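Reviewer 2 asked us to include a model.

Predict the structure of this chain.
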Amino acid sequence: MKTALITGGSRGLGRALAAELARDGWTLVIDGRDPVVLAAAAAETGATGIAGDVADPAHRAALVQAVSGGLDLLVNNASTLGPTPMPRLDALPVADLADTLATNVLAPLALIQEVLPSLRGRRGAILNITSDAAVEGYETWGGYGTSKAALEQLSNVLAAEEPDVAVWWADPGEMNTDMLRAAGEDADAAPPPAEAAAALHRLIADRRPSGRYRASDLVSGR
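Predicted model (structure tokens):
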């Protein structure tokens, strides 16, 4: 039986992807900051839920302990927008950018470093959730986009360094999520996270080569 660790698995894309993998019989460990929401997601997917913040080293240690029996897939999905309303770069406090980088870049790398031995031994995979904000210049998205651009390059280099591990960095596109709503966008007009989750499920099931993917391309079969 395969085991997956999905950060940010209590809501949105993480929860939808957990549901996809649960239907395939995966053993799941998920996390989230709201213990009530996390408990509901864990009950829905049959996952083990561990409440906490991925930026907290003690919480990451608990996640690693939960998959100490072996790991086949790490999904770095948990992330933060940073301060909202999202400021322009000329008004973005450097301390807030540091916090965003801690959650969106440093925490994923720290988890990767901890679980790589298991992933290498089981020829596992890493799925880092990114964004079009990593490659496009959207006003007020500078802090978040910078963090996702860093995560993309981290993934790119990791793919070159780890030939026995599939490393994917995937842009799910706009989704009807609380995060998009918090960014001030019209989330109600966006598709549900389940659509992107189904596309990413295909990426995992097909074990595509390491690289950058867009959920919209996976849906269309490209």
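The CA atoms of residues 56 and 107 lie 8 Å apart. The chain has one domain: 3-220. We have added this to the supplementary material.
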